[in-house]
Amino acid sequence: MRQRALVARERTYAHAVAVNNSRRARAARRRKRRVAAAVNDLTDAQWASIKAAWEGCAYCGKTTGTMQRDCVMAISRGGRYTVDNVVPACGACNASKCNDEVTGWLRRKRYDERLFLERYVRIRAELMSAERETALTVAPEAGSLP
């Protein structure tokens, strides 16, 4: 009788793992389609300037380790990988935030929400103005012939 209980438990576990894997696979496919459908125009140079401007994790301030690209507005909520939506995040913050709304997540983690939002607005404005200046200097002047 005890052997039957063990076999039944193993089957239940195997079924749970199989269901979980298929759910993960479906979620990964949905995410891949969402990312491909959105306009994601973040270049490596832009990412480097974002990391330099934040000088570490945008949420907790950690400066060591590799920073990951985190969308302030999650892709599952309509966000995109663009200059005005991406911030550097340490692995722990990025995994913890998942696809949560950023201000609610900051409150739950007891991080300084106001500091993040003020820095986000200031850095985003600086980066966007730098992008506009670069576009103006690179674009040929109107009416000039090559």
From TrEMBL:
CDD domains: HNHc. Residues 45-95 form the HNH nuclease domain. It comes from the Bacteria. This is HNH nuclease domain-containing protein.
